[in-house]
Design brief:
three-stranded antiparallel sheet; mainly alpha; 242 residues; two-stranded antiparallel ribbon; rod-shaped; 43% helix
Length: 242
C-alpha cells in the first residue's frame, strides 16, 4: 500500500493534514461522480476512527482523533451526521470550498500538469468491505423478542399483556430495562398479584405509576383492594354434621 500527498497542500496545512485531505478528496470526488451523499451544498464521505486506523496503520486511533479534531477546529474539514439510523454515530466529512477548490484545480493522480510538476498521487482506496467508506453505513440489527420470552409462559389476558408491554417500553425509555432474570421475576410477581387483586386494579396501578413517572410499581397501593372474585369461605366449614 502506498500513501502520498500534495506538497503544496502539505506546505499550507501540514503533512498529516495533507494525507487526510488527499484521502477524503478521493472519496468525495467519487461520490460526486456518482451523484450520491450530497447534503447542504457539499458532497460527503464518512468513516469511523477505527476504519481510519486500518487505512493509516502508522497512526494510532487517538492520534487520528486529534488530527481530525485539529483540522475541524481550523476549518480544513466539515463534519456532520447523515446516517439513516439515529443510533449510528459514524462521522461524515466534507471539504470546505476553500480546500475543495485547491484540489479541483490540481491533478491528484500523479500526472504532470501543463505548467508544473505535481507531486501528489491518488490515495489507495480502502479494499476492506467492513471499512470501505463509499458503502452505506450498516444499520443496527433489530432485536426481536418473542412474546413467550417476555411473559415466560404466564397466562395473562390480552389487555394485561398490552399493558405490560407498555410498562416495559416505559422502563426502556428511562434506560432502566430489566435484565432476563429480573424480567422473569417481575412477570412472576405480576402473576401472583393478579391472584390477589383484580385485573382492573392492577391495570390502573400500572397506569398511575407511569403517569407519576415512578421508577417501579408500588404494589402497596393495592392494599385493601383484595380481589372480590375469590369464592367466599364455606360458612359451615368446621361445624360437625348432625
Amino acid at each position: 500500500m502506498t500513501h502520498s500527498f500534495d506538497v503544496e497542500i502539505a506546505k499550507k496545512y501540514g503533512i498529516d493534514e495533507a494525507i487526510i485531505l488527499n484521502h477524503m478528496f478521493f472519496w468525495i470526488q467519487k461520490n460526486e461522480a456518482n451523484q450520491r451523499h450530497f447534503h447542504n451544498g457539499h458532497y460527503w464521505t464518512y468513516s469511523s476512527i477505527e476504519a481510519f486506523a486500518e487505512i493509516f496503520p502508522y497512526w494510532s486511533a487517538p492520534q487520528i482523533k486529534r488530527i481530525l479534531k485539529r483540522m475541524e477546529a481550523a476549518g480544513e474539514i466539515l463534519t456532520g451526521n447523515y446516517n439513516n439510523s439515529p443510533y449510528d454515530k459514524t462521522k461524515w466529512y466534507a471539504l470546505p470550498d476553500s480546500v475543495y477548490c485547491i484540489f479541483r484545480n490540481r491533478p491528484v493522480d500523479g500526472t504532470e500538469s501543463s505548467d508544473r510538476k505535481d507531486e501528489s498521487v491518488q490515495p489507495i482506496p480502502d479494499k476492506s468491505p467492513d471499512i470501505e467508506t463509499d458503502k452505506e453505513p450498516p444499520k443496527p440489527p433489530v432485536q426481536k423478542t418473542k412474546v413467550e420470552d417476555v411473559f415466560f409462559g404466564h397466562a395473562f389476558s390480552e389487555p394485561m399483556r398490552a399493558k405490560l408491554q407498555e410498562w416495559l417500553a416505559y422502563k426502556a425509555e428511562k434506560r432502566d430495562s430489566y435484565k432476563p432474570t429480573g424480567l422473569k421475576s417481575f412477570m412472576t410477581v405480576v402473576s401472583n398479584k393478579l391472584k390477589v387483586y383484580s385485573e382492573p386494579d392492577v391495570l390502573s396501578l400500572i397506569d398511575n405509576c407511569m403517569a407519576n413517572n415512578w421508577q417501579g410499581i408500588i404494589w402497596d397501593r393495592l392494599k385493601g383492594k383484595e380481589n372480590d372474585d375469590q369464592p367466599p369461605a364455606n360458612p359451615w366449614e368446621g361445624i360437625p354434621k348432625l
